[in-house]
Hints:
Blueprint: H1 3-58, H2 62-74, E1 78-85, E2 90-95, H3 99-102, E3 110-119, E4 122-132, H4 134-184, H5 199-237, E5 241-246, E6 251-254, H6 256-262, H7 266-269, H8 284-295, E7 300-307, E8 313-324, E9 330-339, H9 341-363, E10 367-372, E11 377-380, H10 382-387, H11 407-423, E12 427-435, E13 438-450, E14 456-465, H12 467-487, E15 489-493, E16 499-502, H13 504-510, H14 514-517, H15 532-545, E17 547-555, E18 561-572, E19 578-587, H16 589-603, H17 613-630, E20 633-642, H18 644-651, H19 653-670, E21 676-681, E22 684-692, H20 695-709, E23 713-715, E24 718-720, E25 723-731, H21 738-754, E26 760-762, H22 766-786, E27 791-799, E28 805-815, E29 821-822, H23 824-834, H24 837-858, E30 863-867, H25 879-888, E31 896-900, H26 902-907, H27 910-921, E32 925-931, H28 938-943, E33 948-951, H29 953-957, H30 963-978, E34 982-985, H31 991-999, E35 1004-1005, H32 1016-1023
Parallel strand pairs: 25-26, 28-30, 30-31, 31-32, 32-33, 33-34
Antiparallel strand pairs: 1-2, 1-4, 3-4, 5-6, 5-9, 7-8, 8-9, 10-11, 10-14, 12-13, 13-14, 15-16, 15-19, 17-18, 18-19, 20-22, 20-25, 21-22, 23-24, 27-28, 27-35, 28-29
Helix pairs in contact: 1-2, 1-4, 4-5, 18-19, 19-20
Amino acid sequence: MKFRSRIVLGVACIELFAFTLLLTMVLQQLKASNQQHIQQFGQQISELIEASAEGALLSRDLATLEQLARRGVEGGDVVYIRFLDASNRVLTEYGTPNRAIEQPKNTPLFHRESVSFQQHGQLLGRAEFGLDISGFHQQQRHIQWQVIGTGAVLMLLSGLFSLWLGNYLSARLTRLRDASLQMARGSWDCVVPIEGEDEFAETAWAFNQMCKSLKQSEQKLIDEAEQLHKLTQAIEQTPTTVVITDLDGAIEYANQHFFELTGYLPDEVLGQNPRILKSGLTDPQLYSELWETVLAGEPWRGELCNRYKNGDLHWERVLICPIRDRAGEISRLMAIKENISAEKEIEEALALAHSRQRALLDSFPFSIWLKDCNGRFLAANKRLAELNGFDSPEELVGQMASEFCEQGYISDCLISDQQVIESGQPILIERQSEFEGQPRWLEIYKAPIFDHQNSVTGTVGFSRDISERKDAEAKMRESAAIIEAASEGIILTELDGTVLMVNPAFTQITGYHPEDIVGKTPAVLSSGRHDKDFFREMFTALAEKGRWEGEIWNRRKDGGIYLHWQTVACIRDGDGVPSRYLALFNDVTERRQAEDEIRFRANYDILTQLPNRALLTDRLQQAMAQSRRNESMLALLFLDLDHFKRVNDTLGHGAGDQLLQEVAERLKGVVRESDTVARLGGDEFVLLLPDQTSADASGDIAQKVIQAVEQPLVIDGQTVQVGASIGITIYPKDGRGVTALFRNADLAMYRAKEAGRHTWRYYEDGMTEQARQQLDLEMDLRGALKHKEIQVYYQPIVDLDSGDIIGVEALSRWTRQNGEEVSPVVFIPLAEELGIVNELGRQMMEQACEHLAELQVRNPSLYMSVNLSTLQIPDGLSLPWLEALVGEYGLKPAQLMLEITEGVLLSDTAGVRSWLEQARSMGFRVALDDFGTGYSSLSYLKRFPVDVLKIDKSFVADLVSDPSDRALVGAIIAMSNSLDLSVIAEGIETGQQLEDLSSLGCSTGQGYLFSHAVEFDRICQKLGRESEYTL
């Protein structure tokens, strides 16, 4: 059944049901209304009968009652009227009451009523009547047929309307259906016509909009798919690593760059946890913070150190973001990682360079700063921060001078900064300022900073206190004024030269009295050494500048020639017109001669005739300026002769002087004429090599210098040969100041000495920091010596047979104020280099003797050995002083053994032999320490008086495993026995070593097997335990 039929049938059913319901309701309403009318009519008749018949009934007036009955029946609708008494006896009646009995039940045409009559509550009688209601029923049937006819007409019209409506709706729905089928086939261009403004029109419009929206959505999906494809390709091809994991960390996706970078294959990674990439170097707390952040829905950024598949480490900058599903819940994590290993290396290098630069800047004793074009500090050194009340240079960064300097200084500072920025040229300023209530002079240097485009981006500057220099200059001016007033000759002349006046000093200098010269011209003083051009230039200067000064050779009255320095000034009148000449002069003949001598002595070394430090510094400054102009390099070579002291000690200082003169000549023969060879003093020379094409060229020259110096030389019949250690620094790479270049070359020279001497080394950046640390160590060592902080520890010397302690070796130990323990291998050579080893030795000897006196109480047979530096013999340690010290503590010289090294014997001088012989004659025993490790020679044992040999621990260490060491130790013991020398084995650390030494005949030893070197209190405790070390 089609939609149209269903609509017609449905509408018909609805109309039939509605009509039936309506008809039923109308009939019921008519019936109820008819019944009501009948009751109302009966009520009216009852009231009429009651009103008219009550009196007749009371009086039993039957005629009246009958008359009333007749009138009532004959009047129309009343069928009958009957009056009855109280006993229900009929008094009278009229009409036909039987009609009510004959009518059918379902068509009631008769209605019966009854009226009661009472008096004082007593029934008198009643009246009955019947009504004909057929008229009411007939009227009701007429109305019913009218209703039925009207309903039939309405049903017919409704059916026709339903048919039309079905056709109308079916046509519009068919168009909507056809459009839907077209849309189902994938065509979004279907359009349903919009007719009218009803709901169907709205539905058609909504359908058309839906088609349009679906078409747009389809296009959007296509665009999104294309965009997703592009995004996928971008992620796959990006040089950045992209990884996606689930919330448990399992890897679901990784782009191609990840596999190329890490070396893993997809099958090795997908499904795995990223912990396979961990290096183990990242703080676990960082991973906890990572998970806490991303699970809270926030992105996490950081840097991680991870490991490739091949084990190599790398640094990554990581961004981890949570990915949310459509419900807004976190479902996955995405990590974007960038390899920053190269950046890390650069950062570390920059940090190292910055720390070195900071150390260099902070080491300068004057203020240094860097400012931008607005005058804001970009960097500063520690000195500038301290002067302005800051705790660190970093606090100055970002501030301006106006925030902490006085107003006057700020104004000058801004002006000079602007001058440098605008001109692009450096300036040098001298300014007087007040510091801590005292006037101070500052020398301020400022220079522009250029970028790669040669634009000024800021200024760099330094300032230093030159108050002392200024004071000296002021004093010199005062002195000059006094000298001028007391000793300079003065001549006042006319413009034509006629002398008007001379002072007494003039007479003293020239011999001419005023009467001899006044009225004449100074030509009487002419020596004839100056031509006319000389005087023409003089008067030209006076005319143009109003002043001339210079040297003039003149003749005294006695004919003697002398040199004087003369200053001539033009005196002008009130109108500025020249009127006189005033000349001031003094005899500088002797001063010239002295100056020439002083100048030579001030700039040259008297012994070698080479430039000294002052002239070298001047030439270095000139060479630096030339290098800046030419953008070239220069090299500074710092040379120190190796073993020069040995020549002075063995052949005397005269021979040393001859050697220095010869070295000077050899150095001049190696370099160019444009180079400078200078002597700083002692055995130190400096070579200044300007216009170097490369740094390597200076190395070649250094090698030639070493070869030239090492050539043998005969002095007083003795062949002498020395070497040279050279340090090289390059300008401007290694430094831009004279002081920095000298220091750097000196540091490089010491590095060459550390490398074994007879070689050269270039300066390197790290040497400055090492020098600073070395300086700190030197200062701390001097302080420790001053405050007697270096302590003596003791290591037992044991009888290997009995295990008893028979002696102790005194060893120096030093702990710095910061708690750092410094090895004797470090601080004893340093003390030798600083020249304080003798003081160190005396302090150690005093402590050792004091403690030995206390140990003698516990063990009277105990002896103590004390190490001596090679520099203490023969002049550093006075034997009479040592003898007095031993006696002061009640000790005997035999209880003190003096340990020397083979270095003492190498000098092989009469002084050393005499010192050793005198020591033994006083009763002191002498031990040769570390025997066998140096230039050991049996001739030493023959020539020098020695009592004990100490076998070095390097032989004892391999005694058990190395047969050659065992044989060597056995030979030393046997040789010592044959020479009647005692033997002490050092470095015994195991029981097997002890047993082997005993089997070889060694009876005495020391080492960690018995005890480390310990404090005095602990050695006292050990002496209380006898035979502690018996096998």
